Structure formats: C-alpha cells, structure tokens
C-alpha cells in the first residue's frame, strides 16, 4: 500500500520539476510554435514516451551504466547532440525562406512523435535523473523497490502527458495567432530562431557532464 503523504510529496515535487524550464520544454514549444497545436501535442507524447524508457531502465538498473561508464554516457549524449544538429540542418534546408505558420503540422504525426521520443531518450542526464529521483520514494517495507519505481515512473509520465500536452497546445495556438496577425517576416525569423535553439540545445547536451 502506497503511503498517501509520500505520494503527495512525489506529485508536488514532480510537477515542480516538470514545469521547470529545460531542454524538453524548449524543444516542445519550438515544435508547437512552428507546426501547430496538434504537432505540439504529438511531440509532447513522444517526450513522455521517452520517460517510460528511462523509467524501465532505472527500475532494472540499466541507467547505472551511464553513472559508472563515461564511455556509455558520452556515446549517448553525443548521439543526442548530433540528432539535434540534424534537426537544425533540416530546418535551415527546408524549402522557402520562411516557416509557413498555418497552425497545423505539415509533418507526419509519427515523425513528430519520434522526434520527441529521441530527444528524450538520447539524453543521459534524464536517465540519471530518474535513477536518482525515483528511489527516493520507494520503501523496501512497501514491496519490491523496482516495482515501486515503475509505478512512480509511470505516474510521473502521466503528469508529463498532461503538462507537456498543455504546453504543446498553447504553443500551437501561438503559431495560429502569429499566422493571423504577423507579417511574413515572422516566419523567416522564426525559422532561424528555431534552428538556433536546436543548435544551442545540441551544444548544451554535448558539454553536459555526469
């Protein structure tokens, strides 16, 4: 039986961590603002799905590899940085001189989902976060620790779905407003702004330490 007080503390701490500005939210807002509300929500679901991978890895002890092996940590983080640079390159190379703000995604939903998923999974710092965060709420007296970690990880992911989903939809509504009220120059500037955001996220990930 899960302790109510512990669960309340977990929910409060989780919500504060989820809404704290970070690479995931920046990435999410960039996708929603340039591709619309639906794209923002789908990207949010991809980011949330990545959390499930980290949850299972933490519960099974796989994330310990990133904590103990500098090689594994660096391989994953550089893969993530390379992926972000690839997204920046795709944005710059996209047809036309500006982003066409229509409020609806022109990219396949599956592609947007996997962008969010890979953005999350290819960040070893997220793996270490789950490895450090989830065990704090598990108690051997309640039951198997790994099972409790799975429970809290899934619960955390559900909160991510709600919060990130709202962020993604809000960013999409912003793109609709820009499409109606802003001149075409906004799309041009936004294209380079989003590309720059991807590059900055890549640099941030590539320079992160364990």
- Broad shape: globular
Give the SSE order as H and E letters. HHHHHHHHH
Helix fraction bin: over 70%
Largest sheet: none
Structural class: mainly alpha
Task: Supply the number of structural domains.
Answer: 1
Amino-to-carboxy terminus distance: 34 Å
- Global mean pLDDT: 83
Number of strands: 0
Q: Strand share of the residues?
A: under 5%
Low-confidence segments, given as residue ranges, are: none
What's the tally of helices?
Answer: 9
**CA radius of gyration:** 18 Å
Short description:
The chain has one domain (23-206).
Task: Give an overview of the whole structure.
This protein has 210 residues and is mainly alpha-helical. It has nine helices and no strands. Helix 3 runs parallel beside helix 6, helix 3 (37-60) crosses helix 7 (124-133) and helix 5 (70-93) runs antiparallel to helix 9 (184-206). The chain starts with a helix and ends with a helix. 40% of the residues are buried. The mean pLDDT is 83.
């Amino acid at each position: 039986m899960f302790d109510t007080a512990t669960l309340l503390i977990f929910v409060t701490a989780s919500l504060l961590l989820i809404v704290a500005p970070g690479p995931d939210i920046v990435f999410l807002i960039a996708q929603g603002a340039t591709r619309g509300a639906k794209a923002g929500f789908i990207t949010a679901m991809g980011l949330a799905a990545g959390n499930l991978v980290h949850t299972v890895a933490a519960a099974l002890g796989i994330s310990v590899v990133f904590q103990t092996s500098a090689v594994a940590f660096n391989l994953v983080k550089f893969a993530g940085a390379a992926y972000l640079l690839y997204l920046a390159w795709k944005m710059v190379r996209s047809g036309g001189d500006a982003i066409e703000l229509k409020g609806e995604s022109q990219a396949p939903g599956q592609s947007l989902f996997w962008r969010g998923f890979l953005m999350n999974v290819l960040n070893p710092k997220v793996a270490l976060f789950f490895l450090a965060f989830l065990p704090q709420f598990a108690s051997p007296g309640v039951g198997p620790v790994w099972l409790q970690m799975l429970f809290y990880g899934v619960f955390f992911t559900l909160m991510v779905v709600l919060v990130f989903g709202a962020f993604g939809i809000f960013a999409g509504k912003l793109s609709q407003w820009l499409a109606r009220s802003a001149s075409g120059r906004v799309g041009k500037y936004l294209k380079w702004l989003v590309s720059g955001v991807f590059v900055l996220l890549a640099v941030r990930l590539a320079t992160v330490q364990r």
